[in-house]
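To illustrate the input format used throughout this study, we show a single complete record. The first block contains the structure-token representation of the backbone; no residue identities are included at this stage. The design step must infer an amino acid for every position from geometry alone.
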């Protein structure tokens, strides 16, 4: 059985320094993705739609993994990759403490051997097992090419991210770069299990020169 090591193959994209920002060039990659918005008076931790979207995203990712591992010809094994989130507001008033105006795309990277046909088969299996959740219709498989970006490791609770973002902004100014996309978070820890002070999250901002 062939075993893929995506975390090692793309190590520079899933590790980062907590001391200083770094510039990376993110290639075109394959993702399962789903969009949404945080409901009024909610945050990501208690948003019903966000929870449903994550359930669908993880369900499809693990279904694909086991389908490819168990297929009779050319089976392939790999680890499910980290959850990622792109976050933005549409009214120009971003505040880390006000979360019910946030829009998002959450995504999980997939190996290139996951095709539209494979995804459709996995979705059919998932519907048969879990029922026809509304979120399944919002899932999509598509490439995402982020390109040139600045990233840095944030250690600590999500509410403390502005301090890390300030260091990234200072780096952009010093290097004559400007932001060119959504705030991107790659979750290396489980907020339900980890000590908030030890949570690890890669923060990434697409940039142009």
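Output of the design step:
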């Amino acid at each position: 059985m062939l075993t893929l090591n995506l975390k090692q193959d793309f190590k520079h994209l899933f590790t980062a320094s907590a001391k200083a920002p770094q510039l990376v060039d993110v290639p075109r990659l394959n993702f399962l993705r789903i969009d949404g918005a945080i409901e009024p008076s909610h945050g990501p931790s208690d948003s019903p739609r966000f929870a449903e979207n994550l359930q669908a995203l993880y369900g499809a990712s693990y279904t694909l993994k086991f389908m490819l591992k168990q297929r009779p010809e050319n089976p392939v094994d790999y680890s499910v990759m980290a959850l990622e989130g792109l976050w933005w507001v549409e009214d120009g008033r971003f505040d880390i403490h006000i979360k019910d105006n946030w829009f998002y795309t959450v995504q999980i990277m997939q190996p290139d051997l996951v095709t539209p046909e494979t995804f459709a088969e996995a979705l059919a299996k998932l519907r048969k097992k879990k029922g026809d959740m509304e979120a399944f219709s919002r899932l999509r498989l598509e490439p995402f090419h982020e390109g040139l970006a600045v990233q840095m490791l944030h250690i600590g609770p999500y509410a403390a991210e502005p301090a890390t973002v300030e260091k990234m902004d200072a780096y952009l100014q010093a290097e004559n770069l400007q932001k060119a996309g959504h705030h991107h978070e790659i979750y290396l820890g489980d907020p339900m299990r980890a000590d908030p002070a030890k949570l690890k999250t890669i923060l990434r901002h697409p940039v142009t020169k």
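Structural context for interpreting the output: Residues 48-70 form the longest helix (23 residues). Residues 181 and 206 are 5 Å apart (CA to CA).
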